[in-house]
Design a protein that fits this description.
about 210 residues, mainly alpha
């Protein structure tokens, strides 16, 4: 009946619950519609957390990101914890240090982290391949990753050491299980194959 869990939440939570004192809730509501506001907020949050690890994440994330900035820090903490929990579930990774979400700047770290893991890693991926510099005429990304795991990990570690990165991203690249980081790197590289090849070819041409 419902096309998605997020839509079901939006519709289902818009139905007032009889045990809730809506007169009091309306006082705390921005526009006097507490049930609808809560349902919409949950819809936005589920649109992000439930799409982590899925191909539509970037589209879903960007469609609601600007809407969540208006929420209070306390409300956004719920989303941050949900994001971290889903990353652990999908990627089997948890930051090595406790994540502080008591300020907007702390919350931004979480957003940057999930953006990097899911889609905002183009510069990083291309930079690593530029240093690896494989033969473009015979390059098969997946096979190359399988045969050059230690070299890739070494270049990733070198990149982290030489660049100022948000701490959660640096922590991910530095502490993620080696087998998993190779799998993540390879999978994201396949999505950027054309750009990787173009960059490598242009690099070869610039050497002449």
């Amino acid at each position: 009946m419902f096309e998605s869990k997020s839509l079901k939440i939006l519709l289902g939570n818009s139905i007032e619950e009889p045990e809730v004192d809506y007169d009091d809730a309306e006082v705390q509501s921005e526009v006097g519609l507490p049930v609808e506001e809560e349902a919409l907020r949950e819809y936005f949050y589920v649109s992000i957390s439930d799409n982590i690890g899925k191909k539509d994440f970037k589209e879903e994330y960007n469609s609601v990101k600007n809407d969540i900035v208006r929420y209070s820090t306390k409300q956004k903490q719920v989303l941050a914890q949900s994001i971290l929990k889903q990353i652990d579930k999908e990627y089997d990774f948890s930051p090595s240090l406790e994540v502080d979400t008591n300020s907007d700047s702390d919350l931004d770290e979480v957003y940057k982290f999930v953006e990097f893991i899911e889609f905002d890693h183009e510069d990083f991926i291309i930079a690593i391949w530029s240093v690896l510099n494989p033969d473009t005429n015979s390059l098969r990304l997946e096979k190359y990753c399988e045969q050059n795991q230690y070299k890739i990990i070494s270049e990733i570690e070198e990149y982290v050491s030489g660049h100022e990165l948000p701490w959660m991203i640096a922590d991910f690249l530095r502490t993620y299980n080696k087998e998993n980081i190779i799998s993540w790197f390879c999978e994201k590289s396949k999505n950027l194959r054309s750009l990787i090849l173009l960059n490598l070819i242009e690099g070869d041409e610039n050497e002449w």
